Amino acid sequence: MNPESITPPTPSTPTAQPSAAPPEPKPSADGIFRRGFGLKGDISADLADDYHSQLVEELRSGGNRMTRGDIEIRLAKEFGFCYGVDKAVDFAYEARRNFPDRRIFLTAEIIHNPRVNRRLMEMGIEFLSGQYAKGTTLAGVGPGDVVVLPAFGVSIGELEQLQATGCVLVDTTCGSVIHVWKRVEKYARDGFTSLIHGKAEHEETIATASYASHGGRGRHVVVRDKAEAELICDFIRTGEGGEALTKKFADAASDGFEFERDLGRIGVANQTTMLSSESLEIGAMVREAMAERYGADAADAHFRSFDTICHATQERQDAVAEMMSEPPGLMIVIGGFNSSNTGHLSEIASEHCPTYHIEDLECMISRDRIRHKPPEPGAEPTKTERWYPETRPLVIGVTAGASTPNRVVGEVIALLLEWGEGEGEA
Ligand code: SF4
Q1: Which of 259, 286, 309 is the last residue of a domain?
Q2: How would you label 152-167 residue by residue, b for 16+ Cβ within 10 Å and e otherwise?
Q3: CATH number at residue 203
Q4: Distance CA 353, CA 328 (A)
Q5: Atom of ligand 1 minimally distant from the CA of 88
Q6: What CATH number does residue 110 fall under?
Q7: What is the pLDDT of residue 30?
Q8: Centre of ligand 1 from the C-alpha of residue 151, in Å
Q9: pTM of the model
């Protein structure tokens, strides 16, 4: 048939008009991109390739349980990427797509997960600090560059330095972290010193502390755990030992902090990823000390508290606690060794069953040897022999911190199942 002779059908519907081009991504009033670049659809296949796991989907559809022979895998109800991490990783991928020809930097690890940070390096994103940095520092950033701020945020001082370079800023700071900043800023406005339950060297706490003490308007002191909080409480009660405290908290308090002067009114806040039960206890301890010092009726004038543990952290901790009502024979917790929220999941589980906090698949060296981080505070990663139990049937609990991709979870579970086959010989 001669194609020329075909009469085109009369369209029954009006000819489709070309759709309007999507609006240009615009930065916020301060020039910072905080809403991505409208490229979610363009990067979704890359994200699925890098982080999706079919095995995890199968587990989810089976009620988070899976049995193979004598091995049962129980996956925590809540685990892995949280909303803040999802957003941060999305924005970083979108930034790479939106600025294909520019240098792109991260101020530090975008989240505490080696797989994700290494993937960003492969995409040509460089790090200005931390274990992945290759030499360029903030001083080497110029107006043509793009700098991505991580999910933990950056301090006010660092943000000001970055803005002074004239670079394009892409801010992935999690909304739950910004919520804490607002809280400590309010404490400062109201004349309260922020007592932050967190790790003084953690990026998020460094940023939060900068908001608590910005421009010398407020003060802060960071306590890592109940033992450190108790030292502060003793001082509130007795007024003694200020000199020793000044030395102990030299790197964990605002410049010029004076224990005699600055502990009269305290507002408690926390790094979003701390152990929530400990944060609540610390709040109660400080309140009690204030009541002893100033009298129960006056305690409210000297003490405020606001639980700033984020929902994602809370849900993951609750899910492990629920799993421990019927403890498995072995628990695997997956996440960066420097991931605060992952460490606390391991801490909770280890009170009930043998628990190994591993960073990635390569930590599972063999059925005879595993590299892991013990749950005790300050412990360094170590190797343990003969870790895989030989008892059968065996229930293995699995969870993952808020920065761990499902891909890693799925790979670890697949290997656990493979090694569980047979009669338990190593
Ligand atoms: S753990 Fe919480 S605060 Fe941190 S990124 Fe996730 S949701 Fe945000």
Answers
A1: 309
A2: bbbbbebbeebeebeb
A3: 3.40.1010.20
A4: 7
A5: 5
A6: 3.40.50.11270
A7: 83
A8: 7
A9: 0.90
